[in-house]
Amino acid sequence: VAPGLMSAMESVDGAVRTLPSIGRLSRGLLFGGVHGRVGLSPSSRLLPPAPPSQENVDSQKTTFLLRKQWTLYSVTPLYRFSDTHLKDYARLLSAFIAAEKQKGLAVEIGVELGIKVAISSLPDLRGSDRDQAAILVQLSSRSPASPKNSEEKVIWSGWFCSVSGDDFSENVPEDFTCLPLFLANGAESYTSIVGSWFQKTFDCCFRRLAISPLNLSWMAAMWTGCKVDKTASAMELVFSVPHLPQPLDISYAIHPEDAKALWDTVQKTPGEITQEEVDVFMDCLYSHFHRHFKIRLSATKLVKVSTAIASAHCDGIIKFLQSQYLTGVLMLLTELAISQIQ
Amino acid sequence: MQRRQTPKQPLQVHRKKQTDLSAWRKGGRIDPEKSVQNHQSPNNQKNDSKQDSLEQALSYFEKVQDRVSLKKNNVLQKHLTTVESIALQRGLPPEGFDVLLNVALSGKLSDTVNTRLLKSLIPASVIPETSVVSSVSWLCVSKCSSNIQLLFLRWLITVFDFIDHKERLHALYGFFFSFLQDEKMCPYVCHLLYLLTRKENVKPFRIRRLLDLQAKMGMQSHLQALLSLYKLFCPELVTITLPGKTKTYFKDSEGPWKATINTVRQRKQENSLVSQPLFLGTAQPQSRKRKWNTQLIIPASSTNKNNLEEDREKQRVDFYGTNESFPVEQLQTFSQLLQNIHHLEFPSQMGSVLTNPLLLHYMNCIKDESIYLRLYYWMGQTLQEECTWYVADNKQYEEFKDFLETVYKAECFLQEGFSSCEEFLYKSLPLWDGFCCRSQILRLVSWIPLSSFSEMKSHLYDPLAQLFFTSSLYFKCSVLESLKELLQNWLNWHIIHLDSESDSQAHSLGVYTDAASRHCCRNTTLSGLVNVVAELIDFVGWISTVALRLENNPTFLLYFILDFYETVCDMYLRYNLPLLIMPPAGVFYPALLSMDSVSLNQLCYIMYRYRTNLVAAKENELSKKKILQFKFSSQTYQEYNQYIIAMVGCLWTSSAFQKDIHPQGLCMDDELLKKTTVQEFKTSFNIVYHPAMMGYAVLFLQQAWPDDTTFNFSLIKGKKWNWYLEYLYAQGLKGLKVFIESSINRVSQASHSKAGNMQA
Question: For residue B360, how far is the Cα from the chain centroid?
Fold first, then answer.
């Protein structure tokens, strides 16, 4: 069952491949995927329901989330958060940002400052009505040159969401709001300020959400099976070879139709994926690669998966590419975030 | 003794000076709380002498009259150095500022001295407002040089937050404002005014004055700062446009004091164990550069500002004094807690309760699940994020260790384990090397909450056993110690909740339903509890047996094992738990045949307590006053009897080898024993010949027959046997005493007759 593959191998210069949080990642491995008290990761997952037709998802409202790099965080439930106060929160957060920017000087709440904060709700981004609506935080700046009426430029955005996280949120008392997944795009310094404000105000904890190689292979399998209308780009898996004096990355690109064909032979029950199927799928890819290059990828570490649906890096960075599969990807990420905070 | 005192300082005078530390300050109001803070230091003696010399220095500076030259005057030099060194080390008490500011600003001494004095004005706790006000009046009469004036202003800016009250200082706003005309002082005065300004201070004439100054001096950042603040308060009065972005309004705002203040405070924090509430909770030094979302820094307690926008009408009322909740920042004493307990709010970040004993008290009284849940999330995330068994960064390791220590202390304080900590242990123990933060981790183990469904085996016992068998003797003892504490914590929890149960009449159900038990115990029934406790005891029995073999029966290890069983043997009577488990033979026999009298004595005591407990249980059972859910199995009695027969046979009747009926016991064929060629093998383990006791027997013989050097042990019999017993008891073998008195039926007082083993 070896479909025609196009593969490439390259070594990447060490300077490019900086992995800032390798220590964090290994910890992520230790604790990631621990599910509930007993510590099991699910052996099978249901696929997200078939992508709803275009009218259902107001793609206008979510397209700005696509093709951006989002850094993933898990967030513990927010204490006494209420989405009826979003405007007040924006006011307070903007004062907080101003105060952080000019430490020690008096700042009045509500005064026009260099950075504008907008907090809004994204009601479309949820799995069911039982999920809390996603919350979007956007920081935009006015150019100092022409303060009035100039176009505001978004300099940082972040959003909290929960897609089919209701198993978790149902067990949490009323005072808490469960939005376990947080995604940020923009300068880390703003992430830091906004995160600190949320931590202080709603007594929650942010933690970087790393994605383990196991979960990356899940993503590879799940996303391979998804239908994409346009002629899709290649599926690419990046592996890192451990214990080498020089860092070495192996990039493995597969034609999406070939990958899909392989996956279709592996998957038994439509709508459901098991750990075993994922393993078989990856083993097939590995043995094919071994046949050509005599390299056993199973001895390396999967660090990145890119498909037409999305791309994910083990450091906890994700890029969404298809709006129709946005909630599907978020569902898996919500699950990972919940397992990190439980 | 009196003569040994140095003649210069009679004892009484010395003492008096010490007790009245602020006596030298004339007419000053002494705030006991504030003065006390300065004297809480571990090495009191050293501090007392320092305190003395500081007092002398201060009274010197108070009296100093004319211009004294520093170079020629040794006394001045000495006192100045004293003030400087104490200030650098501990900071100065509130009472010191009045004196030192007065002398420094009065111009009595040279500028060198004044500068050094001003530079050493490091507050240990607070600075009294009165001293600042009086120094402003010195400033107005300009007795001191302009350099000193500048230095004083810079000092005032730096320590602004340490001044205890600011009302009278605010009243001097006009004075400070008038200093603006001095070109040198202007930047610092601006900064000070920036700190002082309230809305009511913004007046049209002041704005005009500032604009005039700006016109005269050009765009100065300090003037802009003040103007922008004025504009913030009264936008209708300040109509000019000010540039929006300015990086720093005030240069050099920290002066030479900031670093020292931080050091002094840090040192003080280290000295006080579980940190006292900080004077300025928010200004906690954040020493190291860290990622923003690592939460190892325990947040400072601060009021939840979240409800700010809930109701603005209410908010406005709050501003005028009828505030509904008591801010946690102000909570400093236990009496404050009692007075405000009805309207105290928890801090915005629950993690801050860990270092605040008062809030822990409060937490104990409040039955609100969200409190525990907030703490649970925060602690769980922090522990996981920071648990870095393999990280080489030493500093982080120390921090993590301190954090675990803090968590442990809070658990002890609450007498309750945190469930987030339990989960952390379950997740991390399998990966633990048994070395990193050892004592912290093992102590946290002792607070693992009791849970009904037993996940202990896979989560706790298995990983612990692996480490236990492969680690040092010391580690083994530490594990046993912490498991003993774990058992005691469970038993204490049980007895407390049993009491509250019998109050609430729910006892017959045998189910703990008390709301307070929510975190200790997840719906535990009595039988569930008995099973979990039994599982722990069996586990300890097993690892003890193996460890004694591995380590070849060291007394040290045996001590920790028997210590554990001292709790086990008393569970029925002391903790009202219907469960008794005998130690395994692998523990009992090594203790019985130990080379050390300490172990033997300990074993005797334990067997005595087993007997007492079993007898009490039997009596309860026979009287049948209430239908007992649980009975000790006959196997327990049987095991006890086997052991007691072996013990009495060994120590008393010299028949151990014949009578021992325990399958793993000492029973041996006479023929076999003869082959050992040991003479008198029958008596070789009685209280005279037992290797643990022979030392006593030798000493006894020496005392009873001082002339006899043959060490004829057979002389100890009959009346002498009784004397020998008395001798042993007098040597502190209390365990042996209670054992013999309870378990050996002495038919005749005169002879060591056969002992009747007890039949429980």
Answer: 13
